[in-house]
Design a protein that fits this description.
385 residues; alpha/beta; six-stranded parallel β-sheet; three-stranded antiparallel β-sheet; 15 helices; 37% helix; elongated
Amino acid sequence: MGPLEGIRVLDLSMVVSGPFCTMMLGDLGADVIKIEPPDGDVSRMLSGRERGGVTVAILNWNRNKRAMMLDLKQPGAADVFLKMAEQADVVVQNVRPGVVDRLGVGYEAVVARNPKIVYCSIAGYGFSGPSVNKPAYDPIIQGMAGVMTSQRTQGRPRAVKNILGDKVTAMTAAISILAALNESQRSGKGQHLQIAMIDAVAYYLMPDTASRHTYLPHDAGIAPSMNTLEPFQTADGYITIAPLTDKHWTAILKAVGHPEWFEGDEPRPDRVRRSIKSLITLFPTQPSAYWLERIEAADVPCGPVNDYDSIWNDPQFVANETFFEYQHPRAGRVRAVRSPARFSRTEPELWRHPPDLGQHTDEILGEFGFGTDEISELRANRIVN
């Protein structure tokens, strides 16, 4: 088992930011119980990406969990959750601020029953302020937090084609939960973690992109730093290079046979721009492997730009065993990405398939002390299913 064996997590979250966080905890060995309403996590209903009734979103964000159905809108449902919370270590939720309190399962209700609980609340914009009740989706977070501006091309802001905000928030939440668990072992007290997606993204984004805005006062209208070069097209694909220093530029241009492109008395930015324009013209004359061999020999950072045909067989990913395959009982053969940390003794692994809606309801309730008659009554009252 993983290093979090013995930690019990009650997961009220949906879609990505919360479920990815709790999947990380599950990958590390925590007993994650995914608690869903009768309609289930929205991820179960995303169309166009499913097989055997199992969506990709459930597979990719919800492995290493058990699942139960609990309708918190029914009278008495909050009491069931609070009884479970008495025996849990962590609660994670990402509904709009105030909803869990109205349902009777917010932090104050839970901590009254379990003072050691680590309760993590995730919200799009925060827990006060003008945007607190607005719906939060990744493109909006990217726009507000400066991601789109930092990706601009030809003067226009661009979206990252990836749900970056949700995933950065998930990682921030997982780290914060582990820190709070560590502190609670010393103090005997839990605490409430409140994480805004826009804050998590800004924390991740700005140490480099805001380098021109760090010293105050800054001049208005200055664009964020964008130091990463775009990929260069070759005869058969694309490569990426990172010549950060003058030594790198001298070496790479010598390697491709044109040291003169970086020579001269002009300011360095002008010589860099001239070199880039020349490489844009030169690289399409030969395939990627030809250029990478020469640039690597010159000890300049470079690499291929993998697509989703080549990445699975890239020799470095193969050596790292980054990707793995397994047989899902309903979805068939699927591919997944391994937890990136390598532990010398307590290696994370796939130990539970992503669960069906309510798959473990009776099993979970029994473990939390509910008797057979109680479970039957909860079913009769449509509190669980």
